[in-house]
Hints:
mainly beta, Ubiquitin-like (UB roll), 1 helix, 5 strands
Amino acid sequence: MKKLKKIKINLNGKTALFPNGSTVFNVIKKINAPLDKIAIELNKKIVNKKNLRKISLRNKDKIEIVHFIGGG
């Protein structure tokens, strides 16, 4: 059985392992984040949500995900 290589990323300040070739969309899906209520930053740059499936992750990438919460 062939073992998939993993990459190590920093996700909201914590180390996370993902299969090589993963995209930003894979990360969002894995953590069950609602796309309409989050902002995503990859290596200190805001990510356009239209490109989530196109942006492949590399080892040591840093992703910050911010959830919007309503209130008053």
